[in-house]
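Fig. S4 source data, part A: sequence.
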Amino acid sequence: MRRYLPALFAALTLLCAWLALAFPQATTAKFASPDIAGYATVDKSGRSRLDAPPNAPRSPQRGTPLSPEATDPPILPPGFVQVPIATGLAYPTSFAFVPGGRIFIAEKRGVVRVLKDGALLAAPLLDLSSQVNDYWDRGMMTVAVDPNFQTNNYIYVYYTYEPDPSADPQSAAYKGPKTNRLARYTVQGDVALTATEKVLLGTVAGTLAKQSCNDYPAGSDCMPSDGPSHIGGTIKFTPDGSLFLSTGDAADFTSVNDNALRSQSLNSLAGKLLRINRTTGQGFLDNPFSNGNVDTLQSKIWAYGFRNPFRFNFRPGTTVPYIGDVGMDNWEELDVANPGLNYGWPCYEGPAPHAGYAAKPLCGQLQASPVQTPLLSLKHTEGSRCLVGGTFYTGATYPQQYQGAYFYADCVFRYIDYLFVDTNNKLVGGPYRFGYLRYNVSDEASGGPTGIEMGADGNLYVLETVF
């Protein structure tokens, strides 16, 4: 079964979800497991160290399902607990820390919620549900806060646009090809003013007559969402204020189809990592494919050849993105997205050519050209199914052995792993198993983590969606 964002996003079910943080306690932990490849123990002096589980074999399959029931506690290193801090969310997809202590949380249906003073406010910050298509994995995928929020009060959202507010969610038209948008809004108090909307990308939007980006000329400012999944969806900012956005191939994820080839085209916004001016939506002349015109798509592209780069983050102190790109048949991959590089999809998946696309002429040509290999490739047959890019740990709250570690997750098997890289972004340690979250890791239908960020308090915050 192929899963990217949790496939049950389309189900109309009563669900429970929370935003949780994991932090070390003074006491020894009660969540040790012999299946964890490495975990922290605390000796009598109170110092922590990274040990292998005593008298326990290491599993070569890091995602090997365990046996806890859905009501069991998480399996975390000794000294760590998972603490819910927000409940009652409906299919949460993304969250953003706000200066002053609030947290904005995006929900798939097109609503942004506010966590304030430990409570989830009843009134939403922003409600775009009438113009958001949430079929299957579509919807509002991310919310981000402007680096200068304290002075301009800007937020940004990325979502699938629905041109017919009265559309029946069960209709063929609702499930058909759509387009995506990146838009900015101004916040006043705990409300984002819809009248302040500024569409930065996706100004050419699907209509009832022309639903797909394929209906418009190549090079149009159109962000495709033809298939029911793969729209990508992370917004991040660099120190110079540039806005980065990841986009998926927007193709059907159950079969080989030509829409995936858009990831290889510099005349399409599909399957890309984009870098734009957050004020105007224009590109930059110093982007690697710029043709001298900041309004063209080429001037907005940083890297290309991605399938569904759902979550990414920058290595602290750099403009180097680390991207979790969700695979199709065989591999998940973690990419270091340096400018101007091609990451191969759909001609390549993980470290190898994809057999389904090998006969495509474009892929035949590409196999003789340089393609960037992933930092980390994880086989589906070895317990990985939906890699969620995470964050580097630079806080002072966790034990020293986690300093500088890159944490990431798997949405299907609900584990969190970490690894280490050197100054040249080469893998030098790991991956190591940090732990499993609360729900049954042998049951794909239970949902899992969709985002990891480090808070100002030095704790990791993990967004989970549970069905």
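Fig. S4 source data, part B ends here. The radius of gyration is 21 Å.
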